[in-house]
Amino acid sequence: MRRTVTWDQGTEMARHLEITQATGTRIYFCDSVSPWQRGSNENTNGLFRQYFPKSTDLSVHSAPALARVDNELNRRPRITLGDQTPTDLFATLLASGSHPSLR
């Protein structure tokens, strides 16, 4: 279901060529100091921060606790999705079978 990914220019992305080869996903990098080029990511980070403040060590949280946050965020309606939830929209997309990435 993925075609592209847009990342920051951090050193943690140094293995992008390996990831591209392994997944077939094209990777793009946003310009420095241009978070608007990754709008949905920035919005999701803001939602995530409602549960875990910046610099939180996620390794101290259990997998079920992280899954609970994941489920809550994916079931939260989004204005940018026409007040649908990511879960519902994704299920609709899979059921339709007409999206280009499903062919």
Automatic annotation (TrEMBL):
What SUPFAM superfamilies would the database entry show? Ribonuclease H-like
Superkingdom classification of source: Bacteria
* Annotated Gene3D superfamilies: Ribonuclease H-like superfamily/Ribonuclease H (3.30.420.10)
Q: Where is the Integrase catalytic domain?
A: 1-94
NCBIfam families in the cross-refs: transpos_IS30
What protein name applies here? IS30 family transposase
Supply the source organism for this entry.
Microbacterium invictum
